[in-house]
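Practice problem: Autophagy-related protein 9
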Amino acid sequence: MTATLEPSYQPLQPFGPENGEGEEETPHEGGVMIHVVPESGRARWNHVEDLDSFFVRMYHYHQKHGFTCMMLQEALELLQFIFVVVFSTFLLHCVDYSILFRNSPINTSNHKISLSDAVLPPHECVASLGTVTWLCILVAVIFWFLRAIKVMYHLFQFWDIKIFFNTALKINDSDLDNLTWHEVQHRVREVQLEQQMCIHKRDLSELDIYHRILRFKNYMVAMVNKSLLPIRLRLPFLGEVVFLTRGLKYNIELLLFWGPWAPFKNNWHLKEDYKKVGKRKELAQYLSKYILWVGIANFLLCPLILIWQILYSFFNYAEVIKREPGSLGSRRWSLYGRMYLRHFNELDHELHARLNRAYKPASQYMNIFTSPIMTVLAKNIAFVAGACLAVLLILTVYDEDVLTVEHVLTAITVLGGVVAASRVFIPDENLVWCPEKLLTAVLAHVHYLPDSWRGQAHTHRVREEFSQLFQYKAVYLVEELLSPIITPFILCFQVRSHALEIVDFYRNFTVEVVGVGDVCSFAQMDVRRHGNPTWQTSIRVTSPLPGQTPIEPGLTNQYTQAEDGKTELSLVHFTLTNPKWRPPEDAENFVTALRNQARRDADQLTQVLGPGDNALYSSLQSVSSLGAGFSSLVASILRTNPRGYMEPSMGVGYQPMFPPSSSGEKGGVYESGGSVPSTVRGGLSRAEGPLNSDRGLLYSLHQSTRNNSLGASVFGCGGELAPDPDTLELTAADMSLSTLYLHELHHRHVHRRGYQESSINRSLWQRPHQDMPGIRELGDESGETQRRAEKTPLLLGGAKLPRSS
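Answer key — structure tokens:
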């Protein structure tokens, strides 16, 4: 293969209906509702200089329940900081522990010791403060004043956002929880048409808004996807460990995004030097030096940060551990897991909703793995500790004076903790061994798991790798406590060595979008440039339906393609959560082809000899195991198949997943993006997109069977999807089905071609030493469109690339 490498950085123009797909509609022609805003309000919101920060604050305002809740939280955090500093100083210097522990006699022998006897007078307390304590207090005071100034700044910023919500969007704070982000975003787009907050383009698409809110997070997700970050450490006895804590993540974001010497000139523009291939080594040396100085600063501040981490963790977790000692044995999604499992262009509340749904099957999966040795030891330890605890409790009930005996109360507390901790290692005797089923349920919600795990869910290798995504709370707490010590060394000796690769990443994967600025090219969800052929070939090889444009092979290779189907799944997720978004031609062709493939598989159900012969059938069977709502949905689809294939037993208490409307009107049904019935109002600020979408597989299956009973029993009267608010959201169900179906198609293609995908701990990707081909312009604001990329095969750095399909 040969290729022409273009070292120049070229802008990417916006795509969509406003650029060459037809003339723009005026607000009145398009049926857009216009908010009447006073002229002063128009001037106020016209040409917002920093739209990134404005949209981020607007999103946080919606998610954090408005002005009052946000300011109250920040004010109480200031008071909490004061409490931690004052209370810690009081415990260290103002308490006479010799009197409290009766190690020193007091004046009156018959005097009963009270807390006031053990508290030193104020002048003695102040006199006992040493130089180190005064230094810590001084640093704490400076930090508190800086934090107070930041809170005051936020006060004015979010007051401005409050006025924007109340006047421009016509949304009161009391209504925030009753509106999905999808509805808020729709109103923002209407205000943009009316007031031109962004002057570079008239109409902001949903993707433009997401790009501005998630600009830096998309870069982080892409770096994690390409294994550039985080750093993996090989430790004795532990093997390879992924270390990413809040402190380390904060320092990486400081270095790469918003710090004073970061590659970004401002929130929306990458420095020009980072776009030039000739500057790569010079910039890498500069970035390496910057990383070194930040690492040294972390090392100097390590004692203070460590003290704060210990104090805050103690006050935050001590009571919880005393009340529920087994809480440290529960699990949580790690920071690395959240970055690895995140889609491109996925907001925080959308990610949290997915991970919350996956928490239960993930916990069940991890709990089925037990160590026989640990189980035997835990049972015997729990037996001995429980026996001693029972004796002490019986003696205490018989005579309460037993509690006055030295260390009896301490022994009861410790023994109770030992018993609770031992039970963590004792498996539930009623536990059912079904690892593949549980891991499939996890995949349906998290959407990303390595292909090498398929069929290996029962192995400890997969369990250990999954534990890096889903870790013990105790492990999380230990990592956070050690973070101030480990972070400086990781920055100085690990991250610095990747400076050149980071510079190359910015240059090769940054595009300029008119009206948005510089964004990560992966976030464009371009299936031609960043798609994985093994996730598309299984759809492409099938002949398209009449009127459908065939999917052409993309310009991807191992370096440019996203791993684990990230581009394809992110595109499907975004189209479901934003059904009104108009994707570019290639993206639209991929989504349409996926839906048409599902319809073909649905039509072929009668010809299937076994569940392994039809990808849709296998996916539906997996979805049915996710819960009652999902199983009812699958049962309705299979039960009403037009050819009568497979009619599962419903049982006496079966009710349709989507009950038909009681009337012929659409009053009980809402279209995608429409108003939500009052019966499901409340708490919608955390909902994933609209509760219903016409862009997914469920709608596609409905279209293929709308002339039979499925249209009435499942999708309600009028031909619209009719979700039952008491079961599940259709968007989430649709994404779960799409995920399993895409994974099934991908697995079948890989199995046929004999591919072996790398596991989650794949080695660091190879970076090229030359620049990537620039992206061609897609069009301009006047509406002209051009080809988006050359069809010339790529050759990186003069090295022959492996075949990707």
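Discussion: Residues 36 and 168 are 8 Å apart (CA to CA). Students who identified this feature from the tokens alone can consider the problem solved.
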